[in-house]
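Entry 12.
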Amino acid sequence: MKKFELAPLPYAYTALEPIISKETLEYHHDKHHAAYVNKLNELLPGSGLENASLDEIVKKATGPLFNQAGQHWNHDFYWKCMTPKSSVRPPKGKLVDALNRSFGSFDKFKSEFETKGVALFGSGWMWLCSDSKGELKLVRRGMLKILFART
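Predicted 3D structure (tokens):
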């Protein structure tokens, strides 16, 4: 049976300061994300997905198993999306063109993303996704299953 593991952060715990503190990363990664991984491993036996990849589990699972697998997937992706070497700058090229088509402007996208993200109850995820026509959409965490079903 496959056992999922918590991957180490791809940077030092202090690398994202002052935006995200060492204490926040330690708690969120080492406790919060680790709990999803541990619970996912507890729920796998008898699920019929014991040897499936994480992507396959997200596509096929329901209920608590889907929730744990989805949160593990979300967190893995989240950690990889941040870097200590980034700088705050507006997007360029095809991305800004798509944002302008879908939202009217980059500033309107940021505003809608923030408004919808803040409105999520408890912890949650907002995703910027592209549909089959290239139109950008903001989707909430619960939509992850739908997004995976389309891939």
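Annotation: Residues 93-149 form a domain with the minor pseudopilin epsh fold fold (CATH 3.55.40.20). The chain has six helices and two strands.
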